[in-house]
Each structure stands twice: as C-alpha cells, then as structure tokens.
Design goal:
The chain has about 350 residues and is α+β, with helices and mostly antiparallel strands. The protein has helices spanning about 5-15, 20-35, 35-45, 120-135, 170-180, 180-200, 215-230, 275-280, 295-305, 330-355; strands at about 55-65, 70-75, 80-85, 110-115, 140, 150-155, 160-165, 245-250, 255-260, 265-270, 285-290, 310, 320. The strands form two sheets. It has a seven-stranded mixed sheet with strand order 1-2-3-4-7-6-5. Strands 8-9-10-11-13-12 form a six-stranded antiparallel sheet. It is elongated and about 75 Å long.
C-alpha cells in the first residue's frame, strides 16, 4: 500500500485550496513524461471490442467553449480528444459535467469520459452521473472487462463514446504497474499519497442509525474510559502522572497528556479520530513519541509478544490501540484497558533497562 504521508500530500493542501487541480496537473505531468503510463491509461479504458487509440500527450484546464473547462484531455497524434478525465475529490458534480462533456470527445472512433474520485465516493458519484444523462442520452450499463480497475462503465446512445468511473487508488495502482520508468513509479507514489490523504477527509453518506442517540452516548462513554484509566485505583500518582500536563480537546479528538512514573517524557492517551478512522479497532489510542529513550523497534517487538498491535512508521509517533472488550460490564472494560496500559508501561521499562545494560 502506498504511503499517504508523502511530500505532495503534505505540501499541496497547504499551498492551494484547489487540490483537485493540483492532482490533475500532477497526473498530466506523469502521463506526458511516460509513454508506458499513457499506454496503460488507454488500456484501462479499453476492452477487446473497444480499443482507444494510442495517446500522444495530455493537456489540463482545456476550455473548448465559454461554459466548459475540461480537467484533463488526452489526445491521439492527430489531436483528436480520445479521453477526457474529470478529477474529483469532494467538489460537487456541476450541471452537465457528465452529460455535456461527452460532446467534446472525438466523434470518430472509441473515446471515453472518465471520472476519477475517492473510493468512498464512487457509488454516490456514479448515481449522480447517470441522473445527468436521463433527460439527454441513453446510457447502456456495461459489464466491465476488469471490475477491479474500472468498476463502472456505460455506452452513450449505443455509439463509440463511453462514460466511466474509477477511483484514484485503482487508477494509480494500474499506472504504477504499467510504468516502466523508475521516475514515473516514484512520481505515482507521490500522487497516490495525496489521493489517500484526501480520501481520509471523506464525508460518507449518512445512515439513519448513525443519527440515533446511541452515538453521542457512546462518545460520552469513551471519554469516561479515558478519564477513568488515568484515575484507576483512585490515585494517579503511583500509576500515571499528570502533574502540570493538560487535558486536550481538539478537532482530532479528546484526551490527556501523562507520564508513566520515573519517566520524563510525556505521552498521550485519548480518543483519536484520525487513528480510529484510519485503522478502526478502537476509538482509544495511546501515543508514544519517538523521543522516548528506548529502541522503538525493540518496543514494537515487545508489544507484539504481548499481543498488543502497533501502528508505527519509523521517525514518527508510535500509536497503540487500547482495545475495548464487548458484551461485558463497564468495570471489566475499564480493568482490561488499564491492564493493556500497564503492559505498555512494563514493555517500555524493559526496553529502557536493556538500553542501559548495553555496553557504551
């Protein structure tokens, strides 16, 4: 799986609010530098009975009329528009963006209007695309030759034009496999990181059960667990030291800083929305900074031996999920969470002792 913490993923949202345009320009840059990627893109939207002509080059932000701006156009050598790509993260579908843009494709021979969106948005976006065609043209839903790479595809008015939809992850994975140049593969990894980062910010369609009273009650329960872990056994001093360390509330969650006894470095325990959304498992996470004076590789091994999972990228914080027992009373849930924390504390102490024992 590509790393979503790439340089491009870090810089683009900080330098521009037009992330979709930046991603489109990056894709065009990759395609124009790599014949193998252009060939792979043509293969992606083709099948045995529908073969898009070889793509010679691409352009972005093409305005074929006063009312249209095409995100990316891929041309064959004769400057026929064989492929139009409309890049989507979370911007809405504009009026006629699907039903109108097919008119700008080449009339002769196979041509495709391809929408690219985050994986979590593909189902709802395809429904919107189809709705735009209801009053203008007939769409014949096609069985994709490879649903893994191109999950949605339809023929327009029974002709040689098609509209299709795939995700950023699927598109870039296919181009990565097609690329024969090392530089292109590295550039694709950069763009894949940006796409994954944007996918994390998804607003998924709401479900009725998510609006019930259960969710806010549970959030209150999770906050209570975090507080009670700290106050376990009624006196935190011998268990967790929070002296002059703050409770935190932010857009990323709720928790508190603390120290394990005899340790100078502060850690954090709380509800982390980012970790919960990325990995599932549990809402409550323990964060160990990489400044802790132990070998984090050795610590990870210790924790794994204790059946405690870890999410860690070297050079960054180590995140440990505090798993919550299900189907049991609150006291059992709390005691088990405290025991997991104590296992982490003991593992850190063991690694610190090993480091001190090593000959200097």
């Amino acid at each position: 799986m590509p790393d979503k913490d790439t340089l491009l993923a870090y810089l683009v949202p900080r330098l521009t609010g037009c992330v979709e345009d930046a991603a489109t320009d990056a894709l065009s840059y990759i395609l124009n530098r790599s014949e193998s990627c252009r060939s792979g893109l043509a293969d992606l939207v083709s099948d045995d009975d529908f073969r898009v002509a070889p793509l010679a080059y691409t352009e972005t932000q093409v305005s074929p009329s006063k009312t249209a701006r095409l995100d990316l156009v891929a041309y064959e050598s004769g400057r026929q528009r064989r492929l139009i790509i409309e890049s989507k993260f979370w911007a809405g579908l504009s009026d006629g963006q699907a039903s109108g843009y097919v008119d700008y494709l080449a009339d002769e021979g196979p041509a495709v209007l391809l929408f690219v969106a985050p994986e979590s948005r593909t189902e709802t976006l395809w429904s919107e695309i189809c709705q735009q065609f209801e009053s203008k043209a007939a769409l014949e839903q096609l069985e994709p030759a490879d649903p893994v790479r191109l999950p949605r595809c339809a023929k327009v008015d029974g002709g040689q034009k098609r509209v299709a939809l795939t995700s950023w992850n699927r598109l870039l994975a296919y181009l990565r496999d097609a690329a024969t140049e090392k530089t292109s593969a590295a550039e694709i990894e950069q763009l894949a990181g940006l796409a994954m980062k944007q996918d994390d910010s998804a607003f998924l369609p709401l479900h009725a059960d998510e609006l019930e009273a259960t969710l806010p009650r549970r959030m209150h329960d999770y906050q209570r667990i975090v507080s009670d872990i700290y106050w376990a056994h009624g006196k935190p001093g011998a268990w967790m030291d929070g002296d002059r360390l703050s409770v935190t509330n932010s857009s990323n969650g709720h928790g508190r800083y603390f120290r394990f006894p005899k340790m100078l470095e502060a850690q954090w325990i709380g509800i982390s929305y980012a970790q919960w959304a990325s990995y599932g498992k549990t809402p409550i996470w323990l964060q160990i900074w990489d400044s802790v004076p132990v070998d984090l590789h050795a610590l990870c091994e210790q924790l794994e031996q204790l059946n405690l999972s870890v999410e860690w990228t070297p050079g960054k914080s180590l995140w440990i999920p505090i798993l919550l027992k299900t189907g049991v009373t609150y006291d059992v849930v709390l005691e088990d969470a405290v025991q997991q924390m104590k296992h982490v504390r003991d593992a850190i102490r063991a690694c610190a002792a090993e480091s001190e024992a090593e000959p200097g």
